[in-house]
Hints:
Blueprint lengths: L1 H85 L1
Amino acid sequence: MDKEMLKALSSLLDEKLEPIKNQLNENTQILKALEHSAEVNKAEQDKRGNDIAHIKGDVESIKKDLLQVELVTSNNWSEITKLKAVK
């Protein structure tokens, strides 16, 4: 009788725990999907950060080149003014 009682109790316990096991498996799958999504988002953010750094470097270079063009242009205007004065 004890074996039958243990068997019945075990069966009842398994029956009661089944929905909990299923929910636990579902939660685990959701968590794994969220972790993967977070990793993908992090990689995309890192890529954007690198792209922004490169763009910033390009803009700084363009600014330096533009300043040089302004300086040369101003020197040219100065020379043109001197040449006009010679006439």
